[in-house]
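Box S2. Input/output pair 1.
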Amino acid sequence: MPNEQSEHISRSYEEQLKKLREMVARMGGLAERQVADAAYALIRRDTELAGEVIGRDGEIDQLERDIENFCVRLLALRQPVASDLRFVIAAMKVSNAIERIGDYARNCAKRAVVISQQPQIGGFQGFQYMSQLVQQNLKEAIDSLVNQDATAAERVWAADANVDEVYNGIFRELLTHMMEDARNITAATHLLFVAKNYERIGDHATNIAETVFYAVRGGALPEERPKGDTSPFAVVRPPV
């Protein structure tokens, strides 16, 4: 009988950890969709889709609360140790990062509504590419947590410099448009905020990767995070 009871408790505990993985994966999937739809709304000037993105943010917020409550209960009742403890704590930290990503996607959608009412300046290829990069990093970061894959987490961590490189290009292009014609300032300013939001989404995906690496390996990544954001030092001179 004691063995049967112990086996039942162990099986129940594993099912709870599996449920936690599923909750985080679902939350991550919702955030990925928000990031993608916000970019599509911007590029297609689709205010209806932008409104949907804004309205869906509450679902992500609720999932964060559900995951936090689930983790607190798991910690209190199961008292996990070692790798299980690190995983539960990581799930809470990751859910917080995903919630922030959802906020940034919502902000992008709000800007997309304003931008749709402004004259279009330049193309949106950089925004589309940047959105694809951060979606890919976010998906791989969430998968690395669900699969307990430290190698995948390290790949995401290293890929953040690519997002920064695209951001730098967008930043310089928009500054140039503003210098060339003052009528571009309103639209370009909103686009700069959108680009910065996507850059921050990329940063949060990297934060998730660092958290996952620690949860799996029990130690931090050995090197300083690769960053390539040079926008604070950019200088654009007016055309002669």
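Box S3. Input/output pair 2.
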Amino acid sequence: MGKSYERIEGRLRAFIEAQRIFFTATAPLDGDGTVNLSPKGLTGSFAVLDELTLAYLDFAGSNAETIAHLRENGRITLMWCAFEGPPNIVRVHGRGEPVFRDDPRWDGLMRHFPDIDVTVHGLRAIIVVRAEKIRDTCGYAVPFMTYEEDRPLHASRFAREDDESLDAYFHKKEHVATSIDGLPGLPLPLPPLPPSA
């Protein structure tokens, strides 16, 4: 039923890039810590950089668990499900890191996301993942669901924020600078978006 892959290419890459939603899973090293599972969407916010490297944009929200876990230990799993067409589930297990706005790699990474207007989504980091294990499974129990469109709510909520007000928003949230389990999350103050963004 399941198959392992050495790299992300061909039909596997096409499948991943065609999905409208994916999920990320991370956890702290502490066995009693909170496991985090997050859905990710927004057309154009995910990219395959090469056959072993993926990246996605991390937008404003009221928590920063993924960032905190990656800063602590780097472990992450990404998962895609086929909600249309033949059944399939793909998981990429690997190591990730958050690249923040003041990182010299920022501009180069942002070139992989040409269709995203970052000024309307409160972009706070780019998550870069290096694949260590790539597997698929059948997905026979995943239901059929049809994509209609991206929700406009995230953009309409954060389009009214500038760098200063976004930083103030993050400071007010209990689990942005610090995770639910007390790990360092998003570094604040938030650096301004680079001029090219």
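Caption for Box S3: The beta strands are 3-5, 22-26, 36-40, 46-50, 53-58, 75-81, 89-100, 125-137. The two ends are 43 Å apart (CA to CA).
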